[in-house]
# Entry
Amino acid sequence: MPLGRVASGINNIYTLFSEENGREREISCRIKGKKLKEDLGRYNPIAVGDWVEFEEDPRHEGSGMIVSRRERKNVFARLNRKRGTMQTIAANMDLLVCLSSPESPPFRPRFIDRVLVAAAIGDMPVMVLVNKMDQKMDSAMTERLEIYRSLGWDVRFCSAASGEGVDELVESLRGRDVAFVGQSGVGKSTLLNRIVPGADLAVGEITKKYNRGSHTTCFALMLKGDFPGRLVDTPGIREIDIAGILPLDLGHYFPDFQPFLEGCAFSPCYHDHEPRCAVRDAVEEGKIHTDRYESYLRILEQLQGNAPEYVRERGKN
# Structure
């Protein structure tokens, strides 16, 4: 049965890249029977980057039906608030690039923290990339970026407008399948237009009133072009709700918490109210950044709000 890579999906119609006799072609497909056995109640059972098996339609060249989805090596997903289920943004990526900017739109480290947690849950490596490097970076932003670097994340800088740092970035991405995520307005589409000639992605403007971007990318799209690897543009994201873990497990997705988790007097520990909590002690002693801890508390609150009552109350004193 032919195998294809999902390049885009909209209104339950998916475009696949499939190779035949050394030539890549595009196939337009729907899901056979409208549901897959891999559909476990998720918002979207198929996402950009998925490998799927399909049956070609002998009557219509370039069309077919998706029969099954291959097992994923990783995912980047968030909670879809309307449906209350997991929404996969991209799958089977070698790297997720979390794009941000210093001033326009403003740097949001707690957004990055959520991307890092969601990617870790899905086992997807992350690069933190600051675009618009000509804009002013204050000391708080510099400090936060140094924390990410010290915790093991690759932190880089570029300017999609001027091209500064782009050649070095391209070399680091060469031969890899990479998805780009970030808020609207940080320059994902502009950067990808520079990396992939002919991509011709729509580019929006920053609104003066709210200092944030407008949505120009409406769905995730795997690009075609002269690049050794696959690059994926994703819609701008304003908020990321974490899903897929219990509230009590959240601390394990903060690497700065790791040295202290075993030192808590109570087990399990939420690290928000329990006495003799080693994580809270580390925050007070300056061993964990206070804003990183605040990020943790906000994600914890969100997870507890989405969790069943018995999960929220488990472990409380």
Summary: The chain has seven helices and 15 strands. The mean pLDDT is 88. Residues 8 and 103 are 31 Å apart (CA to CA).
